[in-house]
Specification:
The complex is a heterotetramer, with two copies of chain A (about 400 residues) and two copies of chain B (about 350 residues). Chain A is of the alpha/beta class and about 400 residues long. Chain A has 14 helices and eight strands. Chain A has two domains: about 325 residues, Thiamin diphosphate (ThDP)-binding fold, Pyr/PP domains (Rossmann fold, 3-Layer(aba) Sandwich); about 35 residues. In chain A, the strands form two sheets. In chain A, strands 2-3-4-8-7 form a five-stranded parallel sheet, with helices on both faces. In chain A, α7 packs parallel to α8. The longest helix of chain A is centred in the first third of the chain and has 26 residues. Chain A is globular. In chain B, the strands form three sheets. A seven-stranded mixed sheet of chain B has the order 3-2-4-5-7-6-12, with helices on both faces. In chain B, α11 links the parallel β13 and β14. The longest helix of chain B has 15 residues. Chain B is globular. The chains are: A alpha/beta (about 400), B alpha/beta (about 350). Bound molecules: thiamine diphosphate (2 copies) and magnesium ion (2 copies). One thiamine diphosphate sits at the interface of chains D and B.
């Protein structure tokens, strides 16, 4: 099986020659054709199109982005710790993906709507969600945990790729509401759908690209290519950079350094503007890295190298923004303040989580249907009576 | 042409659904139809004939050829406040959308603790008897009834089709709406205006999930839904002439099942035959037999008998009449039950 | 390390399946494994641990993240003469592959009039009780058993798991192989060599679709499969102490169901309780109750009772113990049946 | 809803600018970037890469292609007529797509394997299948109708897109058999999967592109864009030419005039060679036209114009080859010979079809499983006894 052989074709009319660079690029390295405004060394880079989009971010704003990322990381680490302590059943870390999530999330307007997988705690933060609510489902108390409409932030979706279609449908609804291309910045809306590199293989994601493209729906597909789908490297999902996927469906696509919060902010802002103004969908590939395990149940030592992890640790999204902040005049006290705030936050998260109590078993019969359902009612009644039968000794005989 | 201006007329089931959809589109601007070829063509069965012309391409949408995409975007539209009615072209083509139905559509209300409703209707022309090729004659209702969160119904005549499609669209829950395609061209007199008004007033109509005693009888109950109701009625006619009084029940709903009506009947007659086209093994008849037996253990004079598809894929058209639970097979089951 | 060199040892069900897969890979070079993360990681449950290392990336394949793709390409590979064994990561993620299973895998042999066989096995860790998040605790077996052309089985202990996975792979028909994930870490002594030889000789082993009387009894039969067999056994123990003699039957196969064994038992005991985790409504218990009642109408002292999941989506982990058909609920059903 | 607005982006690194021409190109017209070796007027065009691939087709070979197309069309027309006469339940015509099917089919080697939808009667012909067997299933006597292994031609697949995955899996099998890249022309094999423009929207087709691309499977995706999926124009499935789809998955792709039998032959031959030699998959978009109805149940007057049909009638694939043949010296007797052969063939098809008898109902229980199944056996036995119970009067009371 010659799975690494690359066909060589002459470029000519009628022949689409895909950019096959991705095949030989080792997983985890950067390519040249990546939008970047801030290097791993924390230096600004000029970009003809995108630099303008971060010009209005003054030092205060940059510090805000730093705070976002730092607090989300602290939250994420605390949740991981809580899982280790047996307080959560499972935790999917967003460690390492803070720039992709905060950068894109901060480009959103209040009226925009977001659909995600299960790892987008940073995006949730930008939507004003009380992150502690995310713990509910990983503690086994709730399948959802928050009021999605209150935050324009949909519940996490665990079936990979499904929500890309929900996002597209929601965007089709926005079109029908007339909330696209009015020019009113308080009215025009768009949707962002976040998913991973692995998700791009699911038929549903491709179908979402079809529907979004042919309807010119105001939706941004934000693919966090964190190099891994559990134990499978991105090369198991695509021979070419994922950014090419969007183009194949007629969707303008952009590849961005996902560990560069400024670049993520800029490209997402542009894509959202296009969507809100009626320009249709955009596909963004944010090249980032899952610095932690897939979830707390995972064991990455089985499938990836320490060297690779080290390589990416050098590209930590928070560290590089810190370097920039320092270079642009932020004092140590700022960072100490964030540190202190993080600790208080973590303590609060811990206490909140521990105080959560299990739902009453009878609630399992709630909300199966919005309207009355005789079978559910009968089973609920049976269960209540059955449970009532257990008193003292009798229980469990 | 407004549906409400029509009055009594003799119409086919296909037309009745068309009028029901039209009324739903008229009454609620959030209602929209989606599916393959439902626009200019009016659907392969012409059930949506004329609707795109009258309501526009935004409300009657020709979708890309992808069932998961249709149902998945319908979920998103429902979250955005719309009431999508999806047409699946044929029963056998619902399966690419099965994941969205089973893991998303059925569970979103529960997942959100009741905060989110998904009032999505999925219309599925189903069943055999039309001489079609593979995948065009299936009866997959059991594959949806087993999943909590879904409602599953099937009208058996034009009047019910007209009413039930509107009730399904009005439901805040997802509804699988199985249309017996072999009955699309059956005609009945319907006073569309009266039926529509009754519906508007929430009055005189039978609930979406209520079974109906179509023919009262005393010796045996025959329960059916969708395409097999007319077979059951025919059997009742023949059996009646031969001295057996058959009570025919049109279940109308497969999830939930109106066991109250069913049990009351069986307590009277003491015998039950269930008829459906789907394979008997793990079919609706199994659930009905199990539950009715549990509740009528001492009234039953004979075991509940099931007449339905065999444990074979839907066969080729030339021999489908032998596969289908036809008049003879229903009569045979009635005889067996009576002889017990 | 050759599986056949091992001899009696105390192993988990996960390990038993691993050894069964290893033997199958050793014996037939056309056998191959496909699935997400089954290579270097060994699968999220480590059932395929070490197999890619020993058999190579061509035979133990980390597939792209797409269940329809996995099953669809497995069909193609089977047409090309291979025997693919697909791992679905969790029960709740089989649905994107449902169309390929239902319309293609189940029907190809029939469509081709027997010219084409699809010896594909789909391994599905299923069931609850492990404190998991949504979609990770489902029991969708009824959604496959209803479809003619598929075989559906579930082992309840390590020894059966070892044997049955090999029988499933040897079957010329497609097999859905439901592995009770809550039992993956249950241990038992198995003489792998003896079991393997018996299998090679086609001798001493129980057929893939044969039910087994695990505990004989005289007052009542309790039928279970997969994860609920151990619950049934526990219930039999408690009931026995209280003076009720319970016969426990491990069905092992959900399609076909070994009704001969079941009916023979119920004719003796006169009572039957069926236990499974899947929702009762349209579940396996319905088919069993319906058919057993038909055949044992005059032997049954009480209606067949079903203990299973409620008509709700699988609930949150904190309260799953109350949802699951646990010891108390099985005992309660036994009491009810005995009191009838 | 601004579904026709096209976003304008500056081309720059990191930004994929899809070719959005397809959006404005009216459905049915040709684009420039189409491989063509024979114009609608029947004139040869030179193509740097592909002309060489038809050089060895002498007049005799060209006449063979003509005969293929003419006989397939005659068969197809006869089947349509048989449906009208009530001899068939349904017939999906391949009218107008003969060049795409014969051109590509004649590029196949015996050992190659083919998966199709339900309209590929022309391809079936090139595989040596007795086309009359296709009538079995449309007469309701069989779900399949032929021995696929005998012709390396799989049964028709009616669930749109499903077989693209089967084809890819089969190609993965070929890799495992070692029948790729050996250099032995009698051994190296490839697979072709035929599907329509509508099928490209199905998740399964996209997943097939994923699997084929990452495994470099020897499979050619041959998409006959016949402009319609029943009543939906290709624009309902894609904003851009479908040829771009392949590139997005890292698959070399080519767009060919699907009514040009020579060009179809040439591009398919190239793609097959690449596949057999280990170069992986190719995506071919053959731009053609469904000149007839979708099936005999369809009514195209409801959704497309006479003008459009006329436009394409000018581009009839058979007519243009005829012009070339005449120009290159073929006499009238040749065409008369084909005409006569067609008529004889049609008569034979008619007679064959009419003589087909219904299967015995009991056969519905055959081949549900390859191995014994107690439920099927029991039901078969019941049915046999039940049927035997009907004698004379008793039947149907
Ligand atoms: C349909 C489906 N199949 C399998 C899984 C199991 N699963 C959970 S996460 C995951 C990998 C996802 O990878 P990716 O899309 O890259 O997202 P990431 O976890 O890297 O953020 C898999 C296979 C699932 N959740 N849904
Ligand atoms: C999964 C599925 N959905 C719907 C259908 C109904 N259907 C049959 S043919 C067809 C259109 C196919 O269009 P295209 O792929 O362009 O192929 P063509 O018929 O033009 O050759 C549709 C929607 C089907 N067969 N399968
Ligand atoms: Mg990933
Ligand atoms: Mg087409």
């Amino acid at each position: 099986m010659q799975s690494s052989s690359v066909p060589s074709l002459v470029k000519e009319p009628g022949v689409i020659q895909p950019d096959l660079d991705g095949v030989t690029t080792p997983v985890g390295s950067f390519d040249d054709d990546l939008i970047q405004l801030l290097t791993p060394q924390g230096e600004r880079v000029h970009h003809e199109t995108y630099s303008a989009r971060v010009e209005d971010l003054d030092l205060h704003a940059l510090q805000g982005l730093y705070r976002d990322m730092a607090l989300v990381r602290r939250f994420d680490n605390e949740a991981t710790a809580l899982q280790r302590q047996g307080e959560l059943g499972l935790w999917p870390q967003c460690l390492g993906q803070e720039a992709a999530q905060i950068g894109s999330g901060r480009a959103l307007a209040t009226q925009d709507y977001v659909f995600t997988s299960y790892r987008e705690h940073g995006v949730a933060w930008t939507r004003g969600l009380d992150l502690r609510k995310i713990l509910h489902s990983f503690r086994g108390q709730d399948h959802g945990g928050w009021d999605s409409a209150a935050h324009n932030f949909h519940l996490y979706t665990l079936v990979i790729g499904s929500h890309a279609l929900h996002a597209t449908g929601y965007a089709m609804g926005i079109q029908r509401d007339g909330d696209v291309g009015t020019g009113d910045p308080g009215r025009d809306r768009a949707v962002v759908s976040y998913f991973g590199d692995g998700a791009t293989s699911q038929g549903d994601v491709s179908e979402a690209l079809v529907f979004a493209s042919v309807t010119a729906a105001p939706v941004v597909f934000f693919c966090q290519n964190n190099q891994w789908a559990i134990s499978e490297p991105t090369a198991r999902q695509s021979r070419v950079p994922l950014v090419q996927r969007g183009g194949g469906f007629g969707i303008p696509s952009v590849r961005v350094d996902g560990n560069d919060v400024l670049a993520c902010y800029a490209v997402t802002q542009e894509a959202l503007e296009r969507a809100r103004s009626g320009g249709g969908p955009t596909f963004i590939e944010a090249v980032t890295y899952r610095m932690g395990a897939h979830t707390t149940s995972d064991d990455p030592t089985r499938y990836r190298s320490r060297a690779e992890e080290d390589y990416w640790r050098q590209r930590d999204p928070i560290a590089r923004l810190r370097t920039l902040l320092v270079a642009e005049g932020t004092g140590e006290d700022f960072f100490e303040g964030i540190e202190a705030e993080s600790e208080t936050y973590a303590e609060d998260v811990r206490a909140y989580c521990r105080a959560l109590s299990s739902p009453d078993p009878i609630t399992m019969f709630d909300h199966v249907y919005a309207e009355d359902h005789p079978l559910v009612s009968a089973e609920r009644a049976w269960f209540a009576e059955y449970e009532a039968g257990f008193t003292g000794e009798e229980a469990h005989r | 042409m407004s549906a409400s201006a029509i009055g009594t007329q003799r119409i086919t089931m296909a037309k009745a659904i068309n009028l029901g959809l039209r009324r739903a589109l008229e009454r609620d601007e959030k209602v929209m139809l989606m599916g393959q070829d439902i626009g200019a063509l009016g659907g392969v069965f012409r059930v949506t004939d004329g609707l795109q012309k009258d309501f526009g391409e935004e409300r009657v949408v020709d979708s890309p050829l992808a069932e998961s995409g249709i149902i998945g975007t319908a979920i998103g539209l429902a979250l955005a406040g719309y009431r999508p009615v999806c047409e699946i072209q044929f029963d056998g083509f619902i399966f690419p959308g099965y994941d969205q139905i089973t893991t998303q559509l059925a569970k979103m209300h529960y997942r959100s603790r009741g905060r989110l409703n998904l009032p999505v209707v999925i219309r599925v022309p189903f069943g055999g008897g039309i001489g079609a090729v593979e995948h065009h004659s299936e009866s997959p209702e059991a594959l949806f009834a087993h999943t909590p969160g879904l409602r599953v119904v099937s009208p058996a005549n034009p009047a019910d089709a007209f009413t039930m499609i509107q009730q399904a669209i009005a439901s805040p829950d997802p509804v699988l709406f199985f249309e017996p395609k072999a009955r699309y061209w059956d005609k009945a007199d319907i006073d569309v205006r009266a039926a529509g008004q009754a519906l508007d007033l929430g009055g005189d109509t039978v609930g979406l999930h209520t079974a109906r005693v179509v023919t009262p009888g005393t010796d045996i109950t025959v329960a059916a839904y969708g395409p097999t109701v007319s077979t059951a009625l025919a059997a009742a006619g023949v059996a009646g002439q031969e001295g057996t009084s058959v009570e025919v029940i049109d279940l109308r709903s497969i999830s939930p099942i109106d066991f109250d009506t069913l049990i009351a009947s069986v307590r009277r007659t003491g015998r039950l035959v269930v008829v459906h086209e789907a394979p008997v093994f793990f079919g609706a008849g199994a659930e009905i037999a199990a539950r009715v037996t549990e509740h009528c253990f001492y009234s039953l004079q004979a075991p509940v008998l099931r007449v339905g598809g065999f444990h074979v894929p839907y066969p080729v058209a030339n021999i489908e009449e032998e596969y289908l639970p036809n008049l003879d097979r229903v009569l045979h089951a009635i005889d067996s039950a009576m002889a017990h």
